[in-house]
Amino acid sequence: MTDNTVRQLKTDLPDLESYWMPFTGNRYFKENPRMIARAEGMYCYTTDGKKLLDGVAGLWCCNAGHCNPKIVEAIKAQAEKLDYSMAFQLGHPTVFELANRLTDLAPDGLDYAFFVNSGSEAVDTALKMALAYHRTRGDAARTRFIGREKGYHGVGFGGISVGGLSPNRKMFGTMLPGVDHLPHTHNIEKNAFSKGLPQWGGHLADELENIIALHDASTVAAVIVEPIAGSAGVLLPPKGYLQRLREICDKHGILLIFDEVICGFGRTGDTFGAARFDVTPDLMTLAKGLTSGTVPMGGVLASKHIYDTFMTGPDGAIEFFHGYTYSGHPLAAAAACAALDVYVDDGLFERAASMEGKFSDALHSLKGEPNVIDVRSIGLIGAVELESIDGQPTARAMSIFRECYDNGVIVRTTGDTLAFSPPLIINDAEIEMMIETVRTALRAQ
Ligand SMILES: Cc1ncc(COP(=O)(O)O)c(C=O)c1O
Hints:
Elements: H1 3-12, H2 26-31, E1 36-40, E2 43-46, E3 51-54, H3 57-60, H4 69-81, H5 93-105, E4 110-116, H6 119-136, E5 144-148, H7 157-162, E6 179-182, H8 188-191, H9 207-215, E7 220-225, H10 241-252, E8 255-259, H11 273-277, E9 283-286, E10 298-303, H12 304-310, H13 330-345, H14 348-364, E11 372-378, E12 381-386, H15 395-406, E13 409-410, E14 412-414, E15 417-420, H16 428-443
Parallel strand pairs: 3-13, 5-6, 5-7, 7-8, 8-9
Antiparallel strand pairs: 1-2, 2-3, 4-10, 9-10, 11-12, 12-15, 14-15
Helix pairs in contact: 4-13, 5-13, 14-16
The structure holds pyridoxal-5'-phosphate.
């Protein structure tokens, strides 16, 4: 953006001071605002008239593309019919329909759906379900959780406790007690520029046995991982890794939670990461693509054995003391039903699978460009990792982000990694345009 455009943009905008922006350098942003006015399909349009190809689907969420007319229409119709109804002790039909459709789509065994408003709430809900499940079964000593280094599970206290990104943890005290972490699986020396799943690293799942031995299985409630660690820079599971976690959890009576907030709804080239990697967890967290990013909504899918465990006690008694005012909100439920329609009717999961080769080849064509030290991808999610500038971690990726933005493409940075997760409607020409813009930015450094 030129100085003139910034000046003009700022005069056309409301005062920017009062809004405290999340995960944003507030002072830099307010001096250099980048404002999105509207969006459609693959593109966002800024308040100063710029057209941007959205390479990240908002924040890994607008899987059906922006402002899909069927989803917009469903939200409007629902708003006119039922704005809100009490979430506790009353229901409305759309949320029951959504639960049926979601559990039909999910891997066999995940037969129940609980709704929340975000990925962070989904994670906290799944952790609470795990604790209460064991306690209800008379196994109240199982209170520990095992997460993974570099894991991201949102920003609630539960999520940052099991999460493994230190900037998200270090300011916030001691968090949940009794949490341990698996080692992360990222190893550039062994796996750089792997195509598909990395060959090296499956054995890292065996570390779970050591952690369990340290604490004793009788104290461990659940293991939680993202099938693909998204926010840490798109770290793919090594071959056999998730299967091994499943076996070890089963052996010790520990629940396995997959956080599929990013992996769900076609991102991996299948319905869910669990389907793509052929490993079914006991609990699965969802958000983002659930409504294609249109209305905030998250969810937890639970297996029948978990649900059945709760369904005891006197008639009419509440079985799980948990829920949110906006659990299963009518607008969110309508948006999610419509998003599922679009995914299925437009064949978007199949489309993501069919674009995987083109997307991967395009990303891998960046191998050899300045400072590119790794490329990885699966389905329509991928990353390009860059060599950090000495003493200035994140600066290189941030400068590429700005350059790409100026040249019409939104990418996401995490550390010194560029992450890509375009809407599943992306076409060949748009993949090419996105990657060539990144290539030009890399060469311009
Ligand atoms: C794997 C994972 N879990 C949880 C979350 C938190 O979701 P939210 O930001 O909706 O709370 C995210 C967000 O990116 C995520 O990637």
